[in-house]
Amino acid sequence: MEKSVFPPDPADVLLRDVMMSDLPIFFDQQLDPDANHMAAFTVKDPSDRDAFMTRWAKILGNETGTIQ
After folding, report:
1. How many independent structural domains does the chain possess?
2. Residue 41 sits in which domain range?
3. Per the domain annotation, does 22 fall within a domain?
4. Does 4 map to a domain?
5. Predicted pLDDT of residue 33
6. Is the pLDDT of residue 64 over 70?
7. pLDDT digits over 16-62, tens only?
8. What DSSP assignment string belongs to the chain?
9. Would you say residue 5 lies in a domain?
């Protein structure tokens, strides 16, 4: 019997949990002026790393949320 191989469905997306090691990447993305211009919700000062880390510590500390 011949085994069929189908290409993956582009609609199949698997999200993993956010990890602390992701935060520097997220912070750098937040600094992109074009991304900030297009974003519906932005922070007052995208270059404020302390505010960013405080916000994400709160998000990651929420055990009832799904952070992916």
Report:
1. 1
2. 10-61
3. yes
4. no
5. 93
6. yes
7. 999 999 999 999 999 999 988 998 888 999 999 999 999 999 999 99
8. -PPP--PPPTT--------GGGHHHHHHHHT-HHHHHH-SS--S-TT-HHHHHHHHHHHHH-TTS---
9. no
